[in-house]
Design brief:
The protein has ten helices and 14 strands. It is an alpha+beta fold. Helix 3 runs antiparallel to helix 4 and helix 8 runs parallel beside helix 9. The chain is globular and about 75 Å long. D-MYO-inositol-1-phosphate binds next to strand 4.
Length: 328
């Protein structure tokens, strides 16, 4: 392969960029067709990575997520050993630990300077403080109770933040084999196909998702049931409780449900889905109607602001603490 520079020398009067550009063009036309092909792929990859510095992280993470999903599907074929965490309804399995280990070790090896907040690491005492550093927020199995019962709504949920802003989210509903993805400003997808919220504005024509388990303290339990009654009697078309916060958000993002609200979840349940529902045109806010806060353990997502604000107005808040304070 020859490299023609023609008459051009660095000390000509041409501006530097123009000179370099001419060198590149000369180089391109001096190559064989196959080298030209490789060169174009190289330039295209360079352009994509320059326009989104986190694209490469997302591509790598997608591959890790697929491996995690395969691990979960295989585990569903075997006996499942169940352990309790904070209460008899807060479950964890060996698979939660193994999947989190796979995800964090793979990402850490590739990105050693990044930070990590993983559900099972936090349960084992790791801090869950969100900083400006690039941070991976990971739920290895979102829907552990579903996993234990082989109820088929189980997901791997990963959100990636930089300066506390979510840059991209991945939710893999691995039994359904649905890979939901979204990058800031680039839309939301399911298995590569664009998705959009329903756009529903009328709450009385909507299907609402929430969680019916988990908080069993009497006062919270009563408020949770009272909230469900309030929403049902608006009325709405119905309430559903699929049991994976991340999948709930993706159901709203893809127009299969019109809203989801919950108090008492965690940043690892919300980070991946928050990116997806926002990029699908949905609205995400705090349960009070104020701005969404990833560490607040509460959220409303909806197909429209009208519905989200109506839910905020109707439901009664109860205290759930924060992810970034001691004694969560
Ligand atoms: C749970 C699920 C559930 C939500 C709980 C979460 P996990 O996640 O997302 O839908 O209501 O608050 O803790 O424990 O299965 O990862």
């Amino acid at each position: 392969m020859s490299f023609h520079t023609g008459e051009l020398k660095p000390n000509t009067q041409l501006p530097g960029e123009l000179f370099n550009g001419i060198l590149v063009v000369n180089f391109y036309f001096s190559c064989t067709k196959s080298v030209q092909g490789l060169f174009l792929i190289f330039i295209a990859t360079l352009c994509v990575n320059m326009s989104d510095p986190w694209q490469e992280c997302m591509n790598f993470c997608l591959d890790v997520t697929k491996r995690a999903g395969k691990m979960i599907r295989e585990a569903l074929q075997k006996d499942i050993t169940i352990m309790q965490k904070s209460s008899p309804v807060d479950l964890v399995t060996e698979t939660d630990h193994k999947v989190e280990q796979l995800i964090i070790s793979s990402l850490k090896e590739k990105y050693p300077t990044h930070s990590f907040i993983g559900e099972e690491s936090v349960a084992a005492g790791a801090p869950s403080i969100l900083t400006d550093n690039p941070t991976w927020i990971i739920d290895p199995i979102d829907g552990t109770t579903n996993f234990v019962h082989r109820f088929p709504f189980v997901s791997v949920s990963i959100g990636f933040t930089v300066k506390k802003e979510i840059e991209f989210g991945i939710v893999y509903s691995c039994v359904e084999d649905k890979m939901y993805t979204a990058q800031r400003g680039k839309g939301a997808f399911c298995n590569g196909v664009p998705i959009k919220v329903s756009g529903q504005e009328d709450i009385s024509s909507s299907l609402v998702l929430t969680e019916m388990g988990f908080r069993k303290e009497p006062e919270h339990f009563h408020m949770m049931l009272a909230n469900i009654k309030t929403i049902l009697t608006i009325p709405v078309h119905g309430i559903r409780s699929p049991g994976s916060a991340a999948i709930n958000m993706c159901l709203v993002a893809s127009g299969s449900a019109d809203a989801y609200y919950h108090m008492g979840i965690h940043c690892w349940d919300m980070a991946g889905g928050a990116a997806i529902v926002t990029e699908a045109g949905g609205v995400i806010m705090d349960i009070s109607g104020g701005p969404f806060d990833l560490m607040s353990r509460r959220l409303i997502v909806a197909s429209s602001r009208t519905i989200a604000e109506r839910i905020a107005k109707e439901i009664t808040e109860f205290p759930v603490g924060r992810d970034d304070t001691e004694g969560r």
